[in-house]
Amino acid sequence: MMFAKHFDYDEKRAAAIMELREREAIKEPRLLIQGLGVLALVVAGFVLHRPASSLSSAPVC
């Protein structure tokens, strides 16, 4: 692995992360919802995307 030496487990840091409360960390819920909406649109765009050649009904020679 390229960066394996940088993955060190520290119990104190892990405990500090586990003590975090999600509700307190989210300062602007409206912005979170907007971001999730944009992410959903991007994912839908990738899923529904068609190559330009499949859009025309005429056969391509």
Give a written overview of the molecule.
The chain is built from three helices and no strands. The protein is mostly helical and 61 residues long. The protein is flat. 0% of the residues are buried. The mean pLDDT is 85.
Number of DSSP strand runs: 0
SSE pattern, N- to C-terminal:
HHH
Helicity level, as a percent range? 40-55%
- Biggest sheet overview: none
**Count of alpha and pi helical runs:** 3
The general outline is: flat
Explain the layout of strands and helices.
Layout: H1 11-18, H2 22-25, H3 29-48
Task: List its salient traits.
flat; 3 helices; mainly alpha; 61 residues; 0% strand
Task: Give a short overview.
This protein is mostly helical and 61 residues long. It contains 3 helices and no strands.
